Amino acid sequence: IETVACGSSYRTMPTFGTWEEEVLRQSYPYVDYLSLHQYYTNHEGDVMNFLARSEEMGEFIQEVAAICEKIRLEVGSDKHIGLSFDEWNVWYHYAKNGRVPEKWTFIIVVMTDTNVVRNRLIRLPSDLTEAQLQMLNTLLNHADVVKVACLAQLVNALAPIMTEPGGRAWAQTTYWPFLYGSQFGRGTALQQEVEVPTYACGVSPKAPYLSSSAVLSEDGTHVTVFAVNKSLDEAMTLELDGLNAVLEQHVTLTAPSLDSENTADAQPALPRELPVGADAPELPAASWNMLRFRLA
After folding, report:
1. 210-229 pLDDT, tens digit each
2. Could you tell me which of 137, 30, 152 has the C-alpha nearest to residue 90?
3. Are 146 and 7 in contact (CB under 8 A)?
4. What one-character DSSP code corresponds to residue 2?
């Protein structure tokens, strides 16, 4: 049995930090993880700022990891506390449509968030998808400290799978990156040194246009790169240095517009394979990508 100490409900709470420190001082010998919890919204309608929220998520992780290390040294323990990101997602469904749900009766349909393309870059192809996928990259890039991460939720509410009462079920835009991540994101997370253009927004004066993560397969034969091009109107060429490998597969996910959403009747945002060759791969504008390289 492993135990998780409860961290703050979100990073902007006035007690954030002091709560984590005191909880760990009192419980360090008895717990294995400290929890984090965060949803990201776009009430302002600023897409590029929204797509930079994964930078905040990375800072959040680093801050909590530093607190764990501070208290470990303070109490003189050899044990390292891992992080459990017990709830994370993008969330602004009913608020963005100006609808406020009634009090709970039986089923609140407004809770079923249709993840338009911008969601996936923070997960992708809607702005919500783009945002969400970047968050997945952030978790992979901090796999040295984040040992547990739970997407909230899985069906209908903020979810990659949608259903109708007594009827159809279909995959939302955010489903596909999680499918490929589950299949090819297993192994060893690799550190990257990324050179990419940046843009200024409310989150950061230098938010990168690219979000990426890289994983060495468990059998050591492949490196998989997950990459999100946040530029809404320009493709991006991906050049890899220091990797003696051949590109075997390039899957991309785009959509007709950032407001595109998959429904029971139509799925405009579906993954498709791009041809691979000797040239450096190109990441379409506003896209999520999976690139599989076979090591030489």
Report:
1. 999 999 999 999 999 999 99
2. 152
3. no
4. -
